[in-house]
Specification:
By secondary structure, the chain is an alpha/beta fold. It is 39% helix and 15% strand. It starts with 5 loop residues before the first strand and ends in a 5-residue tail after the last helix. 43% of the residues are buried.
Length: 369
């Protein structure tokens, strides 16, 4: 019997819920398909940084010092949250034996796989952790080592920086298969990449509701119904809506992310694990969010929800909402229990179609020679 093909994934996997959950879902999916899959343990947040702040920012001394001071002030709370995240990371994800502390170390002693995969999340956004951008383009893989592919790689920008086009083109021409997460990313790459670029959904959407229910862990302190609020970018309209909804429905707010402005909060000092984050959405009476992965899980669990489009990185949420025919989630209308099944009929069909497309693409990777 032929051994399973090995696949090494370079991606974001820690420090926020979305990064962890997409990495977990992607690895689970690849293993289910039949790959021997592990994540390459490269800690991009510690590469050439101080407290996670890139040293390259030192040329902006006031902003750099302010960022360092903020990190120090929040150190105790951040340390606790990071410890909870790390426990989930190392309990649920399978990593390469070697831990890479820098991109240079990864280039000098790369792990060996049949296939190297980059994605999902904003791995091709050159403004995020810029020191690892070339790593996320698989610059450490040499021609004799294995095949290069991506899955649902996101750029997260409306316009690609012109000074990064030549570099990106150079590396992506080496790829054997390219998949991005948004149509916008496909349109950005098309003018300078002479290859077929496919679009596929985020890995979290490849796992079904029952899978995520098994993954979730109860927040034991919660008694009774609540509104789950996940706000990343600060948005006054979202805050007002959530507070008004809390009064109308007489429900407390469980807020995650940027949550200091919410009234009637519960568990305000508790840091949730990713497992509790998923359970929190699954069991909420209502969800209010301006996060892409908050939207993903609202759709997966068919929640009554109000989704706000943040001022930046809009297309990924809009594409998902439009694909699922869920424009009602963008409206200030309270959804009733009796409306839910009918509301999500379009989402069921969309996700079934997109899962089929994604699995066909990923299964095809087995045939790369």
């Amino acid at each position: 019997m032929k051994n399973k093909k090995s696949i090494g994934v370079i991606t974001y996997f820690a420090y926020n819920y979305g990064a962890f959950l997409q990495a977990y879902a992607l690895q689970k999916t690849m293993k289910n398909i039949g790959f021997d899959c592990e994540l390459i343990n490269y800690d991009y947040m510690r590469d050439r940084t101080l407290l996670g702040i890139p040293w390259s920012n030192i040329n902006k001394p006031i902003k750099f010092c302010a960022s360092v001071l903020k990190k120090l002030v929040l150190f105790s709370k951040t340390k606790k949250r990071t410890a909870i995240m790390k426990e989930s990371v190392y309990n649920n994800l399978h990593f390469s034996k070697q831990r890479y502390k820098s991109a240079q170390q990864l280039r000098e002693s790369p792990p060996q796989y049949d296939i190297y995969l980059t994605g999902s999340d904003q791995v091709w956004n050159p403004t995020i952790n810029a020191q690892g951008f070339e790593t996320r383009l698989l610059d450490f893989v040499y021609s004799s080592q294995g095949k290069l592919v991506s899955y649902a790689a996101s750029i997260g920008l409306a316009e690609f920086p012109t000074d990064k086009i030549a570099l990106t083109k150079e590396y992506l021409t080496r790829f054997d298969a390219i998949s991005v997460r948004e149509e916008e990313a496909k349109n950005i790459l098309a003018p300078f990449i002479d290859k077929d670029v496919q679009r596929h959904v985020d890995p979290t959407l490849l796992r079904e509701k029952k899978d995520w229910l098994e993954f979730g862990k109860p927040i034991t302190e919660i008694q009774g119904p609540y509104i789950f609020v996940y706000m990343l970018a600060n948005q006054p309209k979202l805050v007002k809506y959530a507070n008004d909804l809390s009064k109308k429905l007489n429900l407390k707010i469980l807020s995650v992310g940027n949550g200091m402005a919410f009234q009637n909060r519960i568990l305000s000092d508790k840091s949730l694990s990713p497992e509790q984050f998923v359970w929190g959405i699954a069991n909420a009476e209502y969800v209010v969010a301006n996060s892409f992965h908050g939207t993903c899980f609202s759709v997966l669990f068919k929640k009554k929800a109000r989704i706000f489009i943040p001022p930046t990185v809009q297309c990924r949420i809009v594409e998902l909402i439009e694909g699922c025919n869920l424009s009602r989630l963008l409206e200030d209308v309270i959804i009733k229990n009796s409306d839910v099944e009918r509301l999500y009929l379009g989402a069921d069909k969309y996700l079934a179609k997109e899962r089929k497309r994604a699995y066909e693409y990923l299964m095809h990777l087995k045939d790369l020679e």
